[in-house]
Amino acid sequence: MMKKIILLNVFIFGILSCNNKSVDSLDNQKYIEAKSSFNRKLVDHFPKKVTSYPFQTVNSKNISKSDVRFMLYEHEKDLKNVDSVVRSLEKKSLAKYSSNDSCLLIVNRFETLKTYENVEDVAITDSAKINQDCFRNLYPIPNFIENEFSKGKNGIYLENNFDIYVLEAKKGNWFKEFKMIPNPQMPANWKNGYSKGIAVNRGKKTLIYWGVIW
């Protein structure tokens, strides 16, 4: 129940705030404190502070569901800022995918809105989707199920025309503060790991920063 309340508060906050208005110090303090609760290695690509509304943060440490993540959704960003981020990503990223791609290696791909919102156990409805040949050279990316501003109908809950840049992804348990068990939703060579990156939709002036551990 607490998780649902937090997400609802973020959603209302984003709706009521004026677009492009400078973020007040208290909201930035909350963002910085939430980000600081994660290892710097996971979140060092996030902005030092949030500069405009609307935005949404997601802070999950649900080890039992292999759902440890910090995410920042920034909407209605200045295009100069979006383009600057993209130029940096083009130089630094390990891989670039599209939300339109037919094959993506998704962390917790069987999560549904119902299981997420009610913090329920996830049922693996099609085990053939866990290990697919097309995953062979892919890096894991998160689902974006908690996005309160808009949801796509694909496997990652992201609208079409997002470019997804992976900055870093490694197999295994790298964060001693989180005792993760093997994730049954992931292929054999990615049962545990972490991934970080940024998804961009220039048309919607949206940036989504992620750091996920499973």
TrEMBL record:
Q: Origin, by domain of life?
A: Bacteria
Q: What is this protein called?
A: Lipoprotein
Say which species the protein is native to. Flavobacterium oncorhynchi
